[in-house]
């Protein structure tokens, strides 16, 4: 399971303390609340795939887990702003790889919500049998309830995470202790004989088991999201917190997997329903009904807590992608009563519900899909840190151990991709759909269609007029487009310059062009590009608040020193291209000048919608001039 960076910050705020209030113990609590839930369903998933050899694969993956944990400690202090795989991949490779990392993590969040809610209800079913026939519907109801809770605005607490994690850890240790008390020499011999002398394993089975065993450590990513909330010094807090995490996992996960697979009878292990709650069955056999009650209480509550954490993490990823213009502003809309991003919360809940409806209670299928997103994120994170170390000329033992860790994760991921084909296709489609949606949002494919409909076109025009009217009421040296249109006869110009930040070379080119044509005036236009244009936002309905005042007035002063009048103009639009074309036609210019990016061709594909759009939509009598 994973925790979103913003949700972690809210954990800190909920304590009424400063942002950096997470001690090593609280770091352990939040991470163990994620990673500790895997033990409740991973042994059953592994058993269905590799049989009695499941504990051996957990032991092998445990080596990779310890090595990867060391890399995540370094990621925490290298990136105190948090962000996990998105930050690491963006810095090591490119923002596009960060986007892919965010999409992979989103897949993990979706599966976390689905598998945790299902597993939580399954464990409750071991005490309340009537739930057995309603697992899917109750899990969906639980997800809807969590969505409602998040919409109202109730937040998770780090102290609550500590209480739940501690309770689950103590109960798991209790189950292990109760088993050890009843397990004599003959029991050890029979258990080890079951694990080590089962059917011979083939090479494909070995790879599948190794790949699937990584699910036992599927909350490791969450510690890198906690950096903004950790107490300083960051390196010390992250190191101690991770030691607590690794120690608690070493004490519980391998032994619980060994005991459930090696000691439970064939009648239990052969029952598909009981395979989904091995820990509960182990508690019943070796501790009796009271211990089973303790396991069910802690497991179900921790699993539902993890589902809620995943919903929070998912919707904060959506908000971050929307801030980076990879998702429409619609995603950021907030509930008028509670102030929560209800659209993002709805998406973060509906996708897991669809997964539950599609897969039913097939935890193996969900586990395979989980491996797709989880291991993909691990690969990008581990490889990204290796690349960063290489660029810093680090060739120490630490570097080569990191490379070995990356190889282990890559083998696990590529095995999952090749063998678990249904999960690969489904997960791949989700990531591809996310990429297309991101590019479409950047290129304004959807907004052009949306605002092309008569209703929203009219609403958009009304909002533009409202924004310009608000500008005209204030005291400012900047003109609305309507005001600029009224003075065209007094200050005619051939040239319109698009400005976002101060660009001296672009301004100089515009001045030289206008002087060459015998003109004395140029128009400079700042467009506040807002996808959700039909929702009026007083926070950015002015040049000062939108960041336009500085660049426009600075350009006006520089043009004046060269004997050129510069008319600073501000307007809003759902699309910068639409605003630029509208202004060019309104002002009667014959050229629109914009700065050319020096970025790569791929960057231009994603971010160059302005240049591409102007080339297509400017009237024939108006030229587009690229500078730079």
Please describe what this structure looks like.
There is one protein chain. By secondary structure, this protein is mainly alpha-helical. The chain folds into two domains: 5-443, Amino acid/polyamine transporter I; 447-627, Rossmann fold (3-Layer(aba) Sandwich). Helices cover 69% and strands 5% of the residues. It is built from 29 helices and six strands. Strands 1-4-3-2-5-6 form a six-stranded parallel sheet, sandwiched between helices. Residues 1-18, 536-540 and 598-607 have low confidence and may be disordered.
Q: Can you summarize the main beta sheet?
A: 6 strands, parallel
Please give the number of β-strands.
Answer: 6
CATH class of the largest domain: Mainly Alpha
Question: How many domain modules?
Answer: 2
So, CATH architecture of the largest domain? Up-down Bundle
Amount of beta strand: 5-15%
Write down the CATH topology of the largest domain.
Amino acid/polyamine transporter I
* SS summary, helix count: 29
Query: What's the end-to-end separation, in Å?
Result: 46 Å
Order of strands across the main sheet: 1-4-3-2-5-6
Summarize the structure.
The chain is mostly helical and 628 residues long. The chain has helices at residues 5-14, 24-35, 42-50, 54-78, 85-92, 95-125, 135-152, 158-182, 185-196, 203-213, 222-225, 234-263, 266-269, 272-275, 278-287, 289-323, 342-359, 363-391, 397-419, 421-443, 445-450, 454-473, 481-486, 504-516, 543-546, 549-561, 576-587, 601-607, 609-617; strands spanning 479-480, 495-498, 521-529, 565-573, 591-595, 623-627.
């Amino acid at each position: 399971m994973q925790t979103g960076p913003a949700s972690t910050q809210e954990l800190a705020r909920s304590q009424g303390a400063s942002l950096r209030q997470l001690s090593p113990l609280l770091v352990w609590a939040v991470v163990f609340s994620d990673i500790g839930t895997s033990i409740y369903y991973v042994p059953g998933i592994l058993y269905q795939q590799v049989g009695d050899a499941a504990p051996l694969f957990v032991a092998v993956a445990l080596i990779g887990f310890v090595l990867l944990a060391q890399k995540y400690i370094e990621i925490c202090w290298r990136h105190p702003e948090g962000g996990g795989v998105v930050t690491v991949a963006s810095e090591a490779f490119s923002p596009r790889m960060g986007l892919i990392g965010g999409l992979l993590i989103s897949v993990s969040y979706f599966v976390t919500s689905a598998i945790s809610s299902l597993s939580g209800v399954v464990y409750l079913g071991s005490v309340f049998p009537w739930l057995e026939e309603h697992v899917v519907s109750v899990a969906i109801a639980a997800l809807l309830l969590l969505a409602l809770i998040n919409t109202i605005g109730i937040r998770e607490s780090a102290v609550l995470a500590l209480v739940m994690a501690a309770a689950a850890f103590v109960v798991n240790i209790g189950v292990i202790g109760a088993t050890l008390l009843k397990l004599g020499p003959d029991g050890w011999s029979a258990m080890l004989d079951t694990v080590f002398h089962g059917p011979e394993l083939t090479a494909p089975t070995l790879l599948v088991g190794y790949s699937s065993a990584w699910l036992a450590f599927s909350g490791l990513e969450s510690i890198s999201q906690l950096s903004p909330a950790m107490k300083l010094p960051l390196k010390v807090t992250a190191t101690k917190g991770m030691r607590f995490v690794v120690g608690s996992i070493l004490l519980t996960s391998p032994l619980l997997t060994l005991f459930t697979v090696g000691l439970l009878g064939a009648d239990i292990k052969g029952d598909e329903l009981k395979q989904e709650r091995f820990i509960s069955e182990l508690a019943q056999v070796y501790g009796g009904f009271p211990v089973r009650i303790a396991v069910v209480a802690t497991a179900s509550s921790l699993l539902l807590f993890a589902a809620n954490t995943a919903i929070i993490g998912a919707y904060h990823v959506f908000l971050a992608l929307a801030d980076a213009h990879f998702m429409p502003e619609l995603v950021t809309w907030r509930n008028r009563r509670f102030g929560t991003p209800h659209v993002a919360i709805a998406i973060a809940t509906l996708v897991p519900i669809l997964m539950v409806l599609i897969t039913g209670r097939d935890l193996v299928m969900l586990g395979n899909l989980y491996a797709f997103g989880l291991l993909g994120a691990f690969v990008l994170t581990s490889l990204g840190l290796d690349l960063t170390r290489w660029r810093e000329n680090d060739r120490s033992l630490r570097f080569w151990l990191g490379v070995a860790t990356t190889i282990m994760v890559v083998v696990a991921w590529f095995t999952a991709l090749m063998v678990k084909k249904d999960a690969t296709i489904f997960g791949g489609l989700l990531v591809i759909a996310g990429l297309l949606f991101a590019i479409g949002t950047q290129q304004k494919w959807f907004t052009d269609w949306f605002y092309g409909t008569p209703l929203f076109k009219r609403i958009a025009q009304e909002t533009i007029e409202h924004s310009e009217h608000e500008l005209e009421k204030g005291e400012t040296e900047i003109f609305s487009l309507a005001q600029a249109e009224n003075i065209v006869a007094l200050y005619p110009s051939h040239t319109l310059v698009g400005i976002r930040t101060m660009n001296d070379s672009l301004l100089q080119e515009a001045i030289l062009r206008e002087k060459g044509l015998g003109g004395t005036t140029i128009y400079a236009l700042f467009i506040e590009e807002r996808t959700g244009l039909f929702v009026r936002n007083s926070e950015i309905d002015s040049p000062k608040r939108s960041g336009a005042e500085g660049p426009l007035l600075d350009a006006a002063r520089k043009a004046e020193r060269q004997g050129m009048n510069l008319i600073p103009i501000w307007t809003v639009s759902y699309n910068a291209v639409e605003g630029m074309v509208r202004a060019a036609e309104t002002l009667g210019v014959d050229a629109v000048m914009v700065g050319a990016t020096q970025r790569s061709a791929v960057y231009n594909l994603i971010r160059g919608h302005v240049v591409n759009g102007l080339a297509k939509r400017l009237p024939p009598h108006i030229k587009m001039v690229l500078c730079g």
